[in-house]
Amino acid sequence: MSGRAGGKPARDPGPPAGESAPVVVGVGASRGVAVSEVVELIEAALAAAGCADRPVRALATVTAKSSEPGLIGAARRLGVPLRAFPATALAAVRVPDPSAATAAAVGTPSVAEAAALLAAGPGAQLIAGKRKSVPRGGPARATCALAGPAVTDNGALTAGREGAPAGSSPAADIVMPSPNPPRRGPDRRTAVIGDKAPEREPTGTKETQ
Prior knowledge:
alpha/beta; 5 helices; 22% helix; 18% strand
């Protein structure tokens, strides 16, 4: 995928006329990250990428981090689902900023970028690469990346299914369905056949990126 699941993040070419394309936010976190740190990071990333007015479809992360209260709380506050992918699915996605430390901690060299691309759908593009939080008086405990769906020749958005570098990927677990109307436009998420309720997994202790 050129400029998509691999290569440098590129500015989204924009949605079809009259339609605001949704954004998926991939998130990684250290144990104990605060909800406010995650939300502030996401809002800063959206603003920096010129996407503050675009609807957020979902947050996405690795399964090992899916029970982290800070991520669940951030999704709840934003009014969107939190989706989780196995580390093996994320590891198959080419990203511009892989991390050996993250690979050693959770089994994939990328969490935020890879999760954003998978959840945004086939052919998805990175709108903004990995960004770290900047908390006051402590180390960064969260990372995020933004991805948008590809647009087909007839103007249709491809989002609504998980994408992969080639072929199909495992369906994402829906850790928390959207509990409230989202703050950035209508919730465009559609159910994916194969989605299932996740089993809780122990939260990792190292920062995932």
